[in-house]
Design brief:
Blueprint (H helix, E strand, L loop, with lengths): L1 H33 L2 E2 L8 E2 L3 H7 L2 H32 L6 H9 L6 H11 L6 H8 L15 H26 L3 H9 L4 H12 L1 H17 L1 H7 L11 H11 L3 H25 L8
Antiparallel strand pairs: 1-2
């Protein structure tokens, strides 16, 4: 009986397996190999050099600078984005007037292209014609910052755009999870005298914990990338002060024609993302609550 079952299943699995091997496993394996070579892309076949690219990377101050900027994003983006998303989600599930309008308004940036968002906010931050500095001057600040031209402010400016763009998505994600929590749990807690703050921490957070863990993984993966917004708004400047690993590998591979070195950076980024995802899953793992 079991043999007949597998004879029926295996022929249907083979096409999917072949597609997966061709478009997922083979590119990963090729990237691993190219990271161990010296290759300029369109030149002669790759020259195997072992771990030389990774040794060079560890000695490259630009690599550590980009990694440090990614670390800043890994701290600021998940913290601020998820706190704001949780706050708005909880607020909009409490019967606030015009809640549907606010949901659409906060989610709207998700419907826009990341490149369009980067261009839009580049004009907002413009030191002379930007609306932000114009507003600051209108309230009496005569010398507002050059947001994207100052190494001290550029990471904060780009982080603000990323948070503005992402918070609506996670808000909707949390709203869907919160609305699935049975009202009977809240009613029982209110009968026992719980206030809204206690309802949030004692019922809402535990019941949406799986969603919160998924959101944390998503936003941290986003924070390790940051390519589109950074490349559109600053191209890694000024003086590499906003460069991240994804823009660094782009410059090395496609502008510097160092495809072996660029791929080594990409492989390193892959393992960083993998390590972050596994770590978050392990640290946030809890027993699943059923209701």
């Amino acid at each position: 009986m079991y043999r007949n079952k597998y004879r029926l299943i295996i022929p249907f699995l083979i096409p999917s397996l072949l597609i997966y091997l061709t478009f997922v496993i083979y590119p990963y394996a090729s990237a691993m190999y190219i990271s161990l070579t010296r290759w300029r892309g369109l030149s002669q076949p790759p020259q195997f050099i072992g771990l030389a690219n990774f040794q060079k990377m560890l000695q490259d101050e630009h690599f550590w600078n980009a990694l440090g900027n990614n670390a800043v994003y890994l701290i600021t983006l998940p913290t601020i984005t998820l706190i704001l998303a949780l706050f708005f989600a909880f607020l909009l599930t409490q019967g606030v007037p015009l809640s549907k309008f606010y949901r659409i308004s906060y989610f709207f940036p998700q419907l826009m292209s990341v490149v369009a968002i980067g261009v839009l906010w580049s004009f907002v931050y413009h030191p002379t014609i930007g609306i932000l500095n114009s507003l600051l001057q209108a309230i009496g600040i005569s010398n507002p910052p050059i947001w994207l031209g100052n190494p001290k402010t550029v990471l904060g400016a780009v982080s603000g755009v990323a948070i503005w763009q992402a918070v609506g998505f996670y808000m909707v994600l949390f709203i869907a999870a919160m609305e699935a929590v049975p009202m009977s749990l809240y009613e029982a807690a209110m009968i026992d005298g719980a206030n809204r703050w206690q309802l949030f921490w004692k019922i809402t957070i535990p019941m949406i914990w799986e969603t919160l863990m998924t959101a944390m993984i998503f936003i941290m993966i986003f924070a390790t990338n940051m390519f589109a917004i950074t490349q559109t708004m600053t191209q890694g400047g000024p003086s590499r002060s906003s460069e991240v690993l994804s823009t660094f590998l782009y410059d090395e591979a496609f502008l510097g024609s160092k495809f072996g070195y660029g791929t080594a950076i990409a492989v390193t980024l892959f393992f960083i993302v993998l390590a972050i995802s596994l770590t978050v899953q392990r640290l946030m793992r809890r027993d699943t609550l059923e209701y």
